Amino acid sequence: MFNIKRNRKILNGFKTYMQNQKLSPKTIQKHLSNINFYLNEYLTYYDVTKMEAGVYEINVFLGDFFIRKCL
Asked: pTM for this one?
């Protein structure tokens, strides 16, 4: 639960950044949805992993988890 609250702050910061870059609301929502899924579903699925450590999990996510669970 701690990571989800912490991740919400990170996502809000990312949203603000994208708004400042003048991205469309649709693009912003799509990026937030994708990152939210990775942070709050995948990184907390097997074990609670902080976002910073999750950078090293992207290969497993795209090469295994996403294929088996999402496609």
From this structure: 0.77
Phi then psi dihedrals of residue 19, to 5 deg: -65, -40
- Averages of pLDDT over each 10 residues, the chain, 71 residues: 79 97 98 91 76 83 88 76
Angle at the Cα of 62 (from 59 to 67), degrees rounded to 5? 140
H helical segments located in 1-71: 2-20, 25-37, 51-54, 58-60
Domain limits for position 47:
2-70
Distance separating alpha carbons of residues 15 and 25, to the nearest angstrom: 10
Q: How many CB atoms lie within 10 A of CB 37?
A: 14
- The separation between CA 58 and the C-alpha centre of its own chain, rounded to angstroms, equals 11
The number of distinct structural domains making up the chain is 1
